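re the bet — no i am not wrong, look at it urself. input seq straight from the record:
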Amino acid sequence: MIGRFLTPRARVYTPTRSGGRKVAALGLITAALFVASTAAAAPPPRGMFPQKLSVGDRKLLLNGAGLAEWGVFGVDLYWAALYLESRTSQVPQMLDPAKAKSIHLHFVRALTRKQMVEAYSTSIQVNTGKDIARYQAGLDQLVAALTAVAKSDRLVFSYVPEEGLSIELNGKSRGSVAGAEFSRMFFRLYVGPNPPTKPLRKALIGKHPKSPPVPPQKPLKPKSATKPKAEAAKEVEKAQPSTKSRPKTQTRSSSQPRSRPTDPK
């Protein structure tokens, strides 16, 4: 990635016999450098990155932004901003292939195409390891889209589900890479375990509250087998017929003789 994996143009000072110093330009360093600045990421200048933007028909929010620096001396390279559909500091949610996302790079230093290609190629190699062959076709398309950048140039990588990764330089399309798998890997270059610099990763992720956990449902209390006495008494009353509506019957005493029918004469 640009910053951690940049192969910069370096200059060294060598002493002369007269005790002075002369500058010797070394040109491009051939080996990729894994020296990252550990300085804390500063906030971007006001107005550099909007709080909201659109990618296709998706609305995105600024999740975080920071400065990418190279080397132990903290050479400024570019400002980066990460946009998501909803702000989060959880990397799995950031890489959700069903959600659109975009990363904007605002360069403060010019870089050659060779430096850009070497930086991204090395970063992808480091982040994919033995699985690099799975992403080789996408890497070839990405390399074809990369070009030299000047100071104040804006390079934008945007992902839209079912469309893939698009690359734009100063508002003009440079190409695209189809497929959600390559896009997920690409954004992991910035927020995964091997970012350009750790301070930049921290700035892009931000400090957003986690989604509130779903409150556990209270277990339903089982109905008691024994009912309260008052409730049981009411049910008994309902089951028995009311004495008010019950028809009155004459009661006969056991001592009272039965009446016999009389024979007609």
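see?? The longest strand covers residues 58-70. told u. also The two ends are 134 Å apart (CA to CA). so pay up
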